[in-house]
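User: Sequence recovery, please. Input:
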């Protein structure tokens, strides 16, 4: 999460003395608009990445290539081709694609044999035109928000094939493989008090965790700290992933980021509920009233500092507007000179016993009452 086509680590003369950190956030399936929950996770990861870079050599691994082989993606591609045939998706909006995705999730699941040609093509780097279109639209959102693009449209295969990853797990004593008798494959961490977790179905379909292992097993040993960012609902799987990667040497940190409720309820994007509230509409509305830097900073203030790491607060457009106004004021009063402390020292205050900088601690610091105006170098390096 091997060709590490990521931004970092950056070569430095003192690289040997700097810790190496791998950020491995959960990916968003390219089949729908980016919801407020998705935006929260992306902004959270971006601030962590940019704030940690002055303190460590950081690799940000976010590869859609790795997760295309999941049924969620391949099934959507097969469903579209079966139900719509050859279609030009070049002018489709995120909403139109999202509507097809909702229909797919409500339809009967295709058999594994129907997905096999898509899986083979995805392994070679092919991407269905519908997902290419979504990723192009997302790239524009990334640019508008000043998000680091970790390679949305690049072919970034995992370092291990599925068989090699399962063999690596077997060598660690963590795999229960029933394929020879026509059964599934399980991640076996029962000796650590964790339940068996299926990785591959009996008909050969890998799940998200299996794909993550293909990516992270070869990468993790090269880092001092691995940070896994994900939403709370996946905590059982990420406890398992943490246990496996810890056995390879690095210190593993799990950072769960709560989803954003809409009117008090947490909706899965598979059921819709994102109309008028997805990234494209929120960005367009903000940019119509505020300049680019205020939009970038205001979005981070709201989705990180105001919503916090939990899932208790519903999305509120009025609070987002307040954060955009607050961002504009902070930018106007930003100090060109620092208080004398180096940027690295100011960033390091927002860590505990880990190498990475905690986004909530750092971002909420900007909103504290009686706080001095933020320094321009901090805003430029981390938030804009």
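Assistant: Recovered sequence (384 residues):
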């Amino acid at each position: 999460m091997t060709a590490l086509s990521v931004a970092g680590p950056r070569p430095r003369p003192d690289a040997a003395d700097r810790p190496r950190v791998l950020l491995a956030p959960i990916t968003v399936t390219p089949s729908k608009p980016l919801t407020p929950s998705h935006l929260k996770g992306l902004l959270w990861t971006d601030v962590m990445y940019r704030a940690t870079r002055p303190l460590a050599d950081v690799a940000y691994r976010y590869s859609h290539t790795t997760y295309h082989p999941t049924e969620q993606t391949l099934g959507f591609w097969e469903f579209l081709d079966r139900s719509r045939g050859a279609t030009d998706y070049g002018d489709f909006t995120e909403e139109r694609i999202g509507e097809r995705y909702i229909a797919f999730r409500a339809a009967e699941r295709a058999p594994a044999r129907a997905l096999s040609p898509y899986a083979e093509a995805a392994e070679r780097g092919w991407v269905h035109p519908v997902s290419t279109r979504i990723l192009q639209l997302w790239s524009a959102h990334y640019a508008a928000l000043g998000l680091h693009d970790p390679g949305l449209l690049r072919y970034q295969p995992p370092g291990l094939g599925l068989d090699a990853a399962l063999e690596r797990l077997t060598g660690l004593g963590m795999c229960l493989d029933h394929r020879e008798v026509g059964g599934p494959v399980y991640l076996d961490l029962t000796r650590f008090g964790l339940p068996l977790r299926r990785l591959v179905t009996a008909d050969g379909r890998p799940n998200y965790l299996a794909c993550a292992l293909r990516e992270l097993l070869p990468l993790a040993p090269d880092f001092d700290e691995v940070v896994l960012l994900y939403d709370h609902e996946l905590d059982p799987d990420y406890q398992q992933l943490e246990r496996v990667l810890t056995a390879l040497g690095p210190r593993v940190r799990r950072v769960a980021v709560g989803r954003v409720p809409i009117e008090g309820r947490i909706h899965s994007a598979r059921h819709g509920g994102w109309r008028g509230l997805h990234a494209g509409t929120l960005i367009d509305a903000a940019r119509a009233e505020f300049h680019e830097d205020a939009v970038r900073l205001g979005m981070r203030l709201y989705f990180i500092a105001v919503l916090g790491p939990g899932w208790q607060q519903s999305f509120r457009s009025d609070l987002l507007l307040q954060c955009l106004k607050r961002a504009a004021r902070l930018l106007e009063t930003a100090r060109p000179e620092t208080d004398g402390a180096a940027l690295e020292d100011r960033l390091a205050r927002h860590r505990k016993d880990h190498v990475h900088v905690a986004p909530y601690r750092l971002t909420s610091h900007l909103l504290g009452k009686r706080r001095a105006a933020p320094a321009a170098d901090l805003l430029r390096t981390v938030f804009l």
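The chain has two domains: 16-256, 275-383.
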